Amino acid sequence: MDFRALPSGDYTLTNLKTPACLSGQDGDLIPLTLHVAGGKLADAATGPQIDMGGAIALPCFTDMHTHLDKGHIWPRACNPDGTFMGALNTVGADRVAHWSAEDVRRRMEFSLRCAYAHGTRAIRTHLDSIPPQDAISFPVFAELRAEWAGRIDLQAACLVGMENVDASGAFVRTADIVADHGGVLGCVTYPIPDLKPRLVDFFRLAEARGLHTDIHVDETGDPAVATLRVIAETVLEMGFALPLSVGHCCSLAVQDEVEWAHTLDLVARAGINVVSLPMCNMYLQDRVAERTPRWRGVTLVHEMRARGINVSFASDNTRDPFYAYGDMDMIEVMREATRIAHLDHSASDWPRAFFTNPAQACGFEAPSLAPGAPADLVICKARSWTELYARPQSDRIVLRGGVAIDRRLPDYAELDDLMS
Questions:
Q1: CA–CA separation, 380 vs 397, rounded Å?
Q2: DSSP letter assigned to residue 320
Q3: How many C-beta atoms lie closer than 10 Å to residue 296's C-beta?
Q4: Which of 49, 118, 185, 225 could pair covalently with 211 via S-S, beta carbons 3.0-4.6 A apart?
């Protein structure tokens, strides 16, 4: 149950708080009054006034790095040892055995229903795209994007290993599928001998089709893996100017300062967006049998922010071999990112990393609490950050167009027939 019932029609919410940075101000939480009229935020009082008791109001979330096509396969494809390679091999086998259009569609829709109930309004998902999967998953995605229009704005990025990227092979066909579906060109980089020419091919294919790009980068605890530096160098040398996001970048955190500082200076110059996936990376990184992990797996978000790099946080995987848990809940991501990456006792503008920054990186409509913006809000019965993060906020109110939505989550049993 929501912690407070709101009337239908127009109304004014008083005695709210919101992060100052989301209103373009300095400071921590600031007082807020919101007028709702005709499904939008208004600049004058309307209808009855409701005292919200100091509750925190946030715009609906942007989740810029997810894997909807992998989601919820854990019951039939669990990770045998919790490692990255265990996840990679298990997902590959499950994809070959099970990923029909119907299987992918039902699991993706299940995740979308979860995200919507928790208060997310925009999602970018990566789609495994080794042929023939690209020709299966992208049409399914396009159907779901149309069906969910007005509730969740959706983008999709193809996902293939760097060894599959070239300007004359099957990846050209994948790039055309991405372009035909208004998608994002994506890949995973590894320290292979011909990485640089393949990156050049990748960016040229994106330029020719006018595509945003999104790359999985250095998801490892091996300090010798430094493909992010090569990516930034290539972008600068080519003058590649289309939006580029990179995810993970875990190895930066175990490199010496000379290496990571030089790399981040290049990333800042290249204007590359970075998204950190704290829950998944803490789950996978530094996992060794019978040994306590020595680090948290997250990248150098504080050092990035200090250089003016656009940093975001996102969900990543959900109940699949790469992450056994999660529910597409961005409040959980905020809470865990704050704990794992020590965002508390730090800059007061970190909330932008869950709203404004990812929207900017992806080109989604910027979230706003200003008059004229849609009344799309998440309101939590918490009067401070410690109250917000101490509990899961399961009684939050989610408003879409000023109307409280039904936040009931789908039952896992709905997918039981897919798990045999």
A1: 6
A2: B
A3: 17
A4: 185
Q: How far apart are CA 109 and CA 293, in angstroms?
A: 35
Question: Which residue has 């409509």 as its token pair?
Answer: 365
Tell me, what amino acid is at 36? V
Residue 292, both tokens: 């306590």
**pLDDT tens per residue across span 80-139:** 999 999 999 999 999 999 999 999 999 999 999 999 999 999 999 999 999 999 999 999
Torsion of CA 60, 65, 69, 71, to 10 degrees: -70
Q: Give the integer Cα–Cα distance in Å for 348 and 293.
A: 30
219 is catalytic: yes
Catalytic residue among 163, 219, 290, 336: 219
The answer to whether the CB of 66 falls within 8 A of the CB of 315 is yes
Looking only at the bridges linking them, the beta strands covering 213-217 and 185-188 are parallel
- The full set of domains in the chain, from first to last, is 11-59+369-404 (2.30.40.10), 61-362 (3.20.20.140)
How many whole angstroms separate alpha carbon 294 and alpha carbon 329? 27
| DSSP H or E segment with residue 172 | helix 170-180
Contacts of 24 (CB under 8 A, 6+ apart): none
Q: Are 362 and 62 in contact (CB under 8 A)?
A: yes
Please tell me the distance from the alpha carbon of residue 214 to that of residue 112, in angstroms, as a whole number: 21
CA dihedral 217, 296, 352, 158 (to 10 degrees): 30
Confidence band of 200 (pLDDT split at 50, 70, 90): very high
Q: Quick one: pLDDT band at residue 397, thresholds 50, 70, 90?
A: very high
35 class by beta-carbon count within 10 Å (0-12 exposed, 13-18 middle, 19+ buried)? buried
Q: Please report, as a single letter, which amino acid is at residue 383.
A: R
What does the longest C-alpha to C-alpha distance in the chain come to? 66
- For residues 359 and 351, is the Cβ–Cβ distance under 8 A? no
H-type alpha helices, 38-183: 84-98, 101-118, 133-147, 170-180
pLDDT at 169: 87
Beta pairing, strands 213-217 & 244-248:
parallel
Report CA dihedral (108, 110, 112, 113) to the nearest 10 degrees. 170
First-to-last C-alpha distance (Å) of the chain: 34
